[in-house]
Amino acid sequence: MKKILIYGDSNVWGDNFITGMRIPDNKQWVNILRNKLKKKYTILQEGLPGRLAGDNETIKTYKNGKSNFISTFRTTAPIDMIIIALGTNDLQTKYDKTAKDIINDLVWYKETIEKSYNDPEDRKKYFINNKLPTIIYILPINFDYKKNANTIFNENSEKKRQEIIKFFEENNFNFVVSSDMPLFDDGIHLNFEGHKKQADIIERVVNEYE
Asked: What is the DSSP letter of 7?
């Protein structure tokens, strides 16, 4: 059976703004997707609240996405498809990152997998039939920077988000942009309807790249 690694942040983990805890397993989009694809894929859920695409967190360093990615990949390898669902936390005003900074951090994941693939020892051990896994990005979803999430994001955060989307549109990447997603009242996290919608979107994408 084929394997998909989904490496992401709180929306992959299933953060519930209402309770401050995790939403039930059967309401998380990754598990909804797992049920949809269970005859064809094993899905590995690697989501962490607050995870960055980059390594800019100096206090809670476990949130640094780059630092933890290669060990996660090797632990779960070989993998047929990798979904990178990061970038939203990097847009928080406290990190003061440019759009180019975030783009470079996101691109790093694809480059790192390719670098590992080009190492003969790694290729034999961690890759299926000498093939690169398909790499798909879920770019940062919409957030409410005008009201509910205005202490975390601002108008400039949204401008950077659009710059990131434009870069991926103009370059050779597999990606999806989930726009107009239903959110909890925090204006950041997918609500139950948002998780259902995200599962439907990613199911179509996975089948497209199968």
From this structure: E
| DSSP states of 72-93 | HHHHH-S-SEEEEE--TGGGSG
Query: Taking a C-beta distance cutoff of 8 angstroms, is the pair 70, 112 a contact?
Result: yes
Task: Judge whether residue 17 has pLDDT over 90.
Answer: no
| 17 neighbors 184 (Cβ within 8 angstroms) | yes
* Structural tokens at position 66: 């780059």
Q: Whole-angstrom Cα distance, residue 119 to residue 102?
A: 26
Separation CA 199–CA 27 (nearest Å): 10
**pLDDT above 80: residue 72:** yes
Asked whether 5 and 176 are in contact (CB, 8 A), the reply is no
Instruction: Kindly give the residue spans of alpha helices, DSSP state H, lying in 77-191.
Output: 99-117, 120-126, 155-170
Global confidence as pTM: 0.97
Strand partners, 174: 136
List of domains in the chain: 2-209 (3.40.50.1110)
How far is 80 from 131, CA to CA, in rounded Å? Answer: 8
Whether 33 contacts 100, CB under 8 Å? no
One-letter amino acid of 202: I
Tell me how crowded residue 33 is: count the other CB atoms within 10 A of its CB: 24
